[in-house]
UniProtKB/TrEMBL annotation, chain A:
Membrane-traversing stretches: 26-47, 78-98, 105-124, 154-172, 203-223, 235-263, 275-292
InterPro entries named among the record's database cross-references: ABC_transp_permease, LivM-like
Source domain of life: Bacteria
Organism for this UniProt entry: Tistlia consotensis USBA 355
Coiled-coil ranges from the UniProt annotation: none
Lineage of origin: Bacteria, Pseudomonadati, Pseudomonadota, Alphaproteobacteria, Rhodospirillales
Secretion signal, residue range per the UniProt entry: none
Full protein name: Amino acid/amide ABC transporter membrane protein 2, HAAT family
Keyword Cell membrane: yes
Subcellular location: Cell membrane
Cellular component GO terms held in the UniProt record: plasma membrane
TrEMBL record, chain B:
UniProt KW keywords: ATP-binding, Nucleotide-binding, Transport
Gene3D superfamilies for the chain: P-loop containing nucleotide triphosphate hydrolases (3.40.50.300)
One GO cellular component term noted in the UniProt record for this chain: plasma membrane
Organism of derivation: Tistlia consotensis USBA 355
Protein name listed in UniProt: Amino acid/amide ABC transporter ATP-binding protein 1, HAAT family
Xref: CDD domains: ABC_Mj1267_LivG_branched (cd03219)
Pfam families noted in UniProt: ABC_tran (PF00005), BCA_ABC_TP_C (PF12399)
Record-annotated ABC transporter domain positions: 5-253
TrEMBL record, chain C:
Cell membrane is among the record's keywords: yes
Gene source species: Tistlia consotensis USBA 355
GO cellular component, one term: plasma membrane
InterPro entries, per the entry: ABC_transp_permease (IPR001851), BCAA_transport_permease (IPR052157)
Gene Ontology BP annotations: amino acid transport
Subcellular location: Cell membrane
Highest rank taxon of the organism: Bacteria
GO MF annotations, alphabetized: transmembrane transporter activity
Primary localisation category: membrane
Entry keyword set: Amino-acid transport, Cell membrane, Membrane, Transmembrane, Transmembrane helix, Transport
UniProt name for this protein: Amino acid/amide ABC transporter membrane protein 1, HAAT family
Length: 311, 256, 290
């Protein structure tokens, strides 16, 4: 009951929230759900697999451009393009995982950063396909031939796909495969001695993480309506990492809260005008000092404080 | 009896230093073999070569007739080879039960796809692995610590959990790296009995790297003595006890 | 002799990378984290130096000499206030704190000094001098010279001073160092101070050649990080050599290609190097003992 009730409440509020909001509110909800997919994928890679990436904006770009190009140039239905962009980003993820087989930590951070810079550079230079400096327009998401013209409609499709990813990630975290990834993170020598194929598991977790981020990118392009390579910089990769850690790496709830944080923090901070980035930075520092396990650990912390109050 | 483990002319050098030097020996199936030698004799390096964590420069290793060096490190569990580590290699943030389940997880897994989709096969695999883990923990009297995070357990208990992680896979060949380190005499005697039982009752082959001479002499069928990566003697405990070279190697170390 | 000016300007840029790269390695040895705010500390320090020049009218050379001690105090203070309280937590959290500091410094500079670029007075003569028939910029020579002096000082400090040796011991084995009576906690503070001092010097060195603005160090910290990884992030000399190599390579590739292509090329090269030599060009990877 302890987890079922809050989960039901969360699902109910996610489903009914748009009814109380205007178009801009719908747009923000879409962005929160899109970011939550990325946070979920980073939780998988970093929280479960222990592999760092500061290049997820690269996978996001592959998904966004891949889907936009398939819809625009090959007239592929949006749902198929989602699938294709996930596969494409997953393949690129396999490529990026190759250095992860040899290096880790800071070295892997630089390698993933390098990959994303190169990927975005290629997209920028390939103007016949991507519009290069001018960027490109992207069609609205559609479902079985019906265009989802408003963000209100698109939100429910994004939410459905997010739910699918949540389900997949929860399944994985509960399985022996998830246990194997944890084991590999904590001692790769012992995990391999227990029969875990390190190369296979590393390639898998990178590809899955990249694929989820790719699908998220496909939604991002379609909701925004246009793409330029400015949306896929290092700062974006770093803000992904930030939201995943601020939300909490070790749970699905953390990923959802991280997505909400990244979508809404700039909105709330806008009122502070020139101080907004300063406050954003101070918020990050404060979160890490007072909520080291992320927003997801807030209820547990409050409960502990409450108990201390009672005693 | 057929050989469970055959080591032929194994050599490994680290930047010119010969850690393992033209080493050969074999271990019969169902027997307990001790690998002893003074500090720095290269025992752990030998074990690392035999478990594919280190790759030798030359030589051949076969396990139950299979060429070990042709296989990657993660294939060993499938061949029935498990090991424990000198300085403990537990999955520190996981519970004792998770750690032990990991010992037999690879053999039961239903594959990534089934796991992502939460198919019944994946769920069943998990249930079987955890049931076996609970059984193994109980057999070692550790059922009470199953849901504790291993990093919070005392050192001795951690060693038992690591042993349970190796045993849960029902290995045919078990390699143990200094299991008695930090134990008192009574504990090490109990460990010796447990090792003999594993060999006699379950037919398990055991390679034991150990400093505790009492344990080695009482538990092993045969003993290989290594000094500076070379085998200087091999035989039954009685033979080793009487071997001049062995006595000199140990006395020499004690005198130095 | 057309290769000489190009080599020197490459080495000068590489020297700037190296100062930042060394700062990153020093902090990483003490705190096990890449300090994303390193470049912003340098930028902020450069702004303060510029204000000191303009408002207090201090001579340029005095400002350059003051940069190291003032930067040291700033870095040490940051470590005490922001890093030490969470140093027992996950390293990733420390990483995010340095990102937070990045935003705070970056934004504070904009609020205090605005967003327009400022000109920084030259530290060295501007007239090119003739060396072996080639025109060489004194600024390049000056940057290289100051960097070499700092590197030599660092070498002497870490290899031959008591405290430097203690710091190396603390990063290799904190537990044993503590047993030997080294205050491991203070080592982190000193490391942050040292790193910040080096960074501020690098900012002041590069400022006359670029401009002083909020974004001046962003690409430089990336290159410093990349160069240090290229050489080997675990060793100060290897990291410095990697940064110098990156600077020189860029100078030669830069004559052939645009700047974004230059960046992509640099990173593609680094990935390739890491695949072949996972510990960096100048460092041998040691196997973990089990």
């Amino acid at each position: 009951m302890r987890t079922v009730l809050p989960a039901l409440a969360a699902v109910a509020s996610a489903l009914t929230a748009p009814l109380f909001l205007g178009p801009y509110g719908h747009y923000l909800l879409c962005m929160a759900a899109i970011y939550a997919m990325v946070a979920l994928s980073l939780g998988l890679l970093l929280g479960l697999g222990g592999q760092i990436s500061i290049g997820h904006a690269g996978f996001w770009a592959v998904g966004a451009y891949g889907s936009a190009i398939l819809v625009q140039k090959l007239a592929l239905p949006f749902l198929l393009s989602l699938l294709a962009s996930g596969l494409l980003a997953g393949l690129v993820g396999l490529l990026v995982a190759l250095p992860a087989l040899r290096v880790r930590g800071h070295y892997l951070a630089i390698a993933t950063l390098g990959f994303s810079l190169v990927i975005v550079h290629i997209l920028y230079e390939w103007d016949g396909l991507t519009g290069g400096r001018q960027g490109m327009f992207v069609s609205r998401p559609s479902l079985f031939g019906h265009e989802l013209g408003s963000d209100f409609q698109a939100y429910y499709l994004i939410l459905a796909v997010l739910a699918l990813f949540v389900w997949i990630v929860v399944n994985l975290r509960r399985s022996l495969g998830g246990l194997s990834l944890s084991a590999l993170r904590l001692s790769d020598v012992a995990a391999q001695s227990c029969g875990v194929n390190r190369a296979g598991a590393t390639l898998f977790v990178f590809a899955l993480s990249a694929a989820i981020t790719g699908v998220s990118g496909a939604f991002y392009g379609a909701i925004l309506g246009q793409l330029s390579t400015d949306s896929f910089t290092l700062v974006v990769s770093l803000s992904f990492l930030t939201m995943a850690i601020v939300g909490g790496l070790n749970s699905v709830v953390g990923a959802l809260l991280g997505g909400i944080f990244l979508a809404y923090a700039p909105e709330v901070l806008r009122a502070f005008e020139q101080w907004q980035m300063f406050i954003y930075g101070a918020l990050l520092v404060a979160f890490m000092h007072f909520l080291p396990d992320g927003l997801a650990s807030l209820p547990r912390r409050l409960a502990r404080i409450g108990r201390r109050g009672d005693a | 009896m057929p050989e469970a483990l055959t080591v032929r002319r194994l050599s490994l050098a680290f930047s010119g230093l010969r850690a393992v030097d033209d080493l050969s020996f074999e271990v019969c199936e169902g027997s307990v073999c001790g690998l002893i030698g003074p500090n720095g004799a290269g025992k752990t390096t030998i074990l690392n070569c035999l478990t594919r964590i280190a790759t030798p420069d030359a030589g051949a290793v076969s396990v139950f007739g299979e060429d070990l060096l042709a296989r990657p490190v993660h294939a060993l569990a499938g061949l029935g080879v498990m090991r424990t580590f000198q300085n403990l290699e537990l999955f520190s943030e996981l519970t004792a039960l998770d750690n032990v389940a990991m010992g037999c997880a690879a053999g039961h897994r239903a594959g990534w796809a089934a796991e992502l989709l939460g198919l019944p096969a994946a769920r069943r695999a998990r249930e079987i692995a955890y049931a076996r883990a609970e059984e193994t923990l109980a057999a070692l009297g550790l059922q009470a610590v199953g849901d504790r995070v291993v990093a919070d357990l005392p050192f001795g208990t951690q060693k038992s959990v690591e042993l349970a992680r190796a045993l849960v896979a029902r290995p045919r060949l078990l390699m143990m790296d200094e299991p008695a380190a930090g134990m008192n005499t009574a504990e090490s005697a109990a460990l010796g009995r447990a090792i003999r039982d594993l060999a006699r009752e379950r037919g398990m082959t055991i390679l034991l790297v150990e400093h505790d001479m009492g344990l080695v002499m009482s538990a092993c069928d045969r003993i290989v003595v290594v000094v500076q990566g070379r085998r200087i003697a091999e035989g039954t405990p009685q033979e080793i006890r009487a071997d001049r070279q062995v006595i000199e190697a140990y006395l020499g170390q004690a005198a130095a | 002799m057309t290769w000489l000016p190009l080599l020197l300007s490459g080495l000068a840029v590489g020297s700037i990378y190296a100062l930042i790269g060394l700062a990153l390695v020093i902090i990483n040895k003490a705190t096990d984290v890449v300090n994303f705010a390193q470049g912003e500390i340098a930028m902020f320090g450069t702004f303060v130096a510029l204000s000191a020049l303009n408002a207090a009218g201090l001579p340029v050379i005095v400002v350059l000499l003051l940069a190291l001690p003032c930067g040291f105090l700033l870095g040490a203070l940051l470590e005490l206030v922001f890093i030490k309280p969470i140093s027992d937590g996950p390293p990733l959290n420390v990483l995010i704190v340095t990102l937070g500091l990045f935003f705070m410094f970056n934004s504070l500079a904009g609020i205090v000094w605005g967003f327009d670029p400022y000109r920084f007075p030259s530290l060295f003569p501007t007239e090119p001098i003739a060396v072996a028939g080639a025109a060489v910029s004194p600024a390049s020579l000056g940057i290289i010279a100051v960097t070499l002096v700092l590197m030599a000082a660092l070498y002497l400090f870490f290899e031959h001073s008591r405290y430097g040796t203690a710091m190396r011991a603390a990063s290799m084995n904190p537990f044993a160092a503590r047993l030997m009576g080294i205050k491991v906690g203070r080592v982190a503070t000193v490391s942050w101070g040292l790193a910040a001092g080096l960074s501020v010097v690098s900012g002041i060195l590069i400022a006359p050649l670029t401009f002083v603005d909020q974004q001046m160090m962003i690409s430089i910290i990336l290159k410093g990080f990349a160069g240090a990884i290229l050489g080997g992030f675990t060793s100060l000399p290897a990291a410095a050599a990697g940064c110098l190599l990156l600077g020189v390579t860029e100078a030669y590739v830069g004559t052939l290609a645009t700047s974004t292509l230059k960046d992509s090329f640099a990173f593609a090269l680094i990935i390739l190097v890491l695949m072949l030599r996972p510990g960096g060009l100048f460092v041998k990877v040691a196997r973990r003992k089990v």
